[in-house]
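Narrative of accomplishments. A recurring question from our advisory board has been how the design workflow behaves on a single, concrete structure rather than in aggregate. To address it, we present the structure tokens for one chain from the evaluation set, followed by the sequence designed for it. No filtering or post-editing was applied between the two.
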């Protein structure tokens, strides 16, 4: 007898419907650190008024994270003042500007004591360096003695007036602008002061499309006040910036990448086109800026690419070309690029 005959009382099990197809859930996008997100917002805010200078803004933010000073070089009218003022607005930092001129005195920069007839006592009149973001405009138009008045401020974040030391409020940064040295009425910066700048950032003309965008934005506002840095909205607080600086300092730097930074710096001392190479502070600065670049991209470790990207702005003001090379028209950046090509980067 067939056990599966219809009259056997057997009923086949009900069919189980096939589950509908559901595509796999894509992996979640890694969350960027909060500091990286804030810095991206700062970059976007500054770019609203400082158009066409993405790499310049990136380098300035790296210096901010590293707590270093910046030397800005470019022709007049390229928005150097706009850049620093806009940056100060993004995190509510104090901002002061000093216009350097041939008759500017050191006490005009740092401050001095004066006798108050009302109280019949001496009191301190604080100079414009008592701020957080200091813009030293056209610093190479003042003589060396006045330029050197910034030396202690940049190195120690403090000012000594008549023997009394006054600390500055962090984060403190000096942004010094200078016009190219071939222009008349300029004085070369002392080597000791040049070395105090973490970066030398070059600002060039925007391209034609970006320049047209600037012209439209400025000319369409009443009184030609478009792209006003005072209109930049706040993004975060100074405490957020200080926290980001601590995070940047904690970024991991493996031994091979640190050695790469050292080798790049040492190579500048043994190049035939360079009369004076970079010192140890150059290697330190390479690693500090590389850490900033890593945090700007949301990483907690540096790569040889970070060091290589930092090389030109970190080293260009720390080397001196031989007279023969300088006369030939070869630039510092061209020589440094040949140095970089000659140093093997470690593999990660």
């Amino acid at each position: 007898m067939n056990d599966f005959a219809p009259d056997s009382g057997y009923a086949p099990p009900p069919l189980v419907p096939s589950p509908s197809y559901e595509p796999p859930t894509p992996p979640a996008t890694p969350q960027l650190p909060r500091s990286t997100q804030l810095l991206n917002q700062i970059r976007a805010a500054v770019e609203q008024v400082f158009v066409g200078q993405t790499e310049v803004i990136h380098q300035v933010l790296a210096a901010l994270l590293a707590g270093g000073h910046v030397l800005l070089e470019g022709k007049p009218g390229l928005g150097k003042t706009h850049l620093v003022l806009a940056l100060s607005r993004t995190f509510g930092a104090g901002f002061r500007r000093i216009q350097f001129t041939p008759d500017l005195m050191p006490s005009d920069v740092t401050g001095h004591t004066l006798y108050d007839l009302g109280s019949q006592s001496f009191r301190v009149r604080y100079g414009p360096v008592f701020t957080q973001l200091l813009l030293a405009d056209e610093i190479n138009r003042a003589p060396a003695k006045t330029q050197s008045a910034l030396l202690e401020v940049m190195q120690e974040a403090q000012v000594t007036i008549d023997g009394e030391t006054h600390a500055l409020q962090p984060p403190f940064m000096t942004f010094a602008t200078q016009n190219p040295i071939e222009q008349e009425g300029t004085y070369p910066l002392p080597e000791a002061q040049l070395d105090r700048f973490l970066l030398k950032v070059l600002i060039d003309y925007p391209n034609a499309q970006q320049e047209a965008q600037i012209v439209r934005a400025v000319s369409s506002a009443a009184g030609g006040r478009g792209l006003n840095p005072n209109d930049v909205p706040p993004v975060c607080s100074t405490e957020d910036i200080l926290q980001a600086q601590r995070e940047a300092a904690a970024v991991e730097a493996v031994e091979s990448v640190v050695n790469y930074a050292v080798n790049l710096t040492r190579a500048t001392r043994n190049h035939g086109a360079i009369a004076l190479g970079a010192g140890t502070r150059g290697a330190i600065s390479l690693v500090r800026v590389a850490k900033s670049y890593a945090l700007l991209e949301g990483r907690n470790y540096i790569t040889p690419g970070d060091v290589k990207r930092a090389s030109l702005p970190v080293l260009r003001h720390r080397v001196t070309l031989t007279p023969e090379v300088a006369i030939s028209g070869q630039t510092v950046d061209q020589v440094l690029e040949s140095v970089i090509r000659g140093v093997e980067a470690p593999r990660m």
